[in-house]
Amino acid sequence: MPRNILKTLQNEHDALRELFAEINDTTDRAAKGRAQLLESIEANLLPHAKWEEAVFYPAFAERANRDGLKAHAEAVLEHHAVEDVVMPEVHAAATNTPEFAGRVKVFGELIDHHAKEEESTLFKMARKLFTSEELAAFDEQYEEWKNSSAASLVIAGEKGKTQVKSAIKSLTS
């Protein structure tokens, strides 16, 4: 089967949905398991989101019409809301608390909402905006990027930003 970035991203959405289902099935007594699942969620989510923001979304916006630009703006803002508000809130709660469970549930719901919109709107438009060769090339670029030192630095920076915001949230709560 030929490579296609849209299929790769959709498969990653599905993997995230499964991880969120697992973490939502945990109890407050599973603090260690919750922490490990949260780490897995972020290990899957951050490379995906950062590459979309750096490569896919700008390429999409260059070719999109007004409706496409609106969908692009929604997707970018949803990324920022999760990265700047939701993830720090999740990290500010102890993993053995109902607060953590509630925040993770909202986190998962936002990711699922975003993924569904992306799959039904952005990806549908992208199939018309890009050739199969371009979609295959994006897929190859994404795979290379995920294994690069640049990706590691971007992800480490994002995790650091989340930790700082989480610490500030903990101090001001």
UniProtKB/TrEMBL annotation:
A family per Pfam = Hemerythrin
Q: Start and end of every Hemerythrin-like domain?
A: 5-126
Q: Which InterPro entries match?
A: Hemerythrin-like
What name has this protein been given in UniProt?
Answer: Hemerythrin domain-containing protein
- Output the lineage of the source organism: Bacteria, Pseudomonadati, Pseudomonadota, Gammaproteobacteria, Lysobacterales
